[in-house]
Amino acid sequence: MSYKVTLVGATGAVGREMAAVLAQRGFPVGELRMLASARSAGKTLSWNGREIVVANLDEADFSRGEIVLSSAGGKVSKVFAPRAAAAGAVVIDNTSAFRMVPDVPLVVPEVNPHAAKNHHGIIANPNCSTIQMVVALQPLHAYGRLTRIIVSTYQAVSGAGARAMEELTRETRAHLSGAAPAHDVFPHPIPFNVLPHIGGFLPNGYTEEEMKMVNETRKIMEVPDLAVTATTVRIPAYRGHSESIYIETEKKISADLARQLLSRAPGVVVMDDPTNQLYPQPIIAAGRDETFVGRIREDLSRPTGLNLWCVSDNLRKGAALNAVQIAELLAEKGWLPRG
Amino acid sequence: MSYKVTLVGATGAVGREMAAVLAQRGFPVGELRMLASARSAGKTLSWNGREIVVANLDEADFSRGEIVLSSAGGKVSKVFAPRAAAAGAVVIDNTSAFRMVPDVPLVVPEVNPHAAKNHHGIIANPNCSTIQMVVALQPLHAYGRLTRIIVSTYQAVSGAGARAMEELTRETRAHLSGAAPAHDVFPHPIPFNVLPHIGGFLPNGYTEEEMKMVNETRKIMEVPDLAVTATTVRIPAYRGHSESIYIETEKKISADLARQLLSRAPGVVVMDDPTNQLYPQPIIAAGRDETFVGRIREDLSRPTGLNLWCVSDNLRKGAALNAVQIAELLAEKGWLPRG
Question: Regarding the domain with residue range A3-126+319-333, which homologous superfamily does it belong to in the CATH classification?
Answer without folding.
Answer: NAD(P)-binding Rossmann-like Domain (3.40.50.720)
